[in-house]
Design a protein that fits this description.
Blueprint lengths: L4 E4 L5 E3 L34 E4 L2
Length: 56
């Protein structure tokens, strides 16, 4: 199964499932659907609802 990327539509920051976000306690390979709904963008603080899947 391929990893996907999700971009914050507010500031353009990208979450990549393959890399995760280890600094925030999200291990590499963590699927977007497995990230808590309380997640906020580390750049601008936008909520998880403000992210869209993108093709890179």
């Amino acid at each position: 199964m391929e990893f996907k990327s999700y971009m914050c539509v507010i500031c353009g920051w990208i979450y990549e499932e393959e890399e995760g976000l280890p600094d925030e306690g999200i291990p590499a390979g963590t699927r977007w659907e497995d990230i808590p709904d309380s997640f906020t963008c580390p750049e601008c603080g936008a909520g998880k609802d403000d992210f869209e899947m993108i093709e890179i």
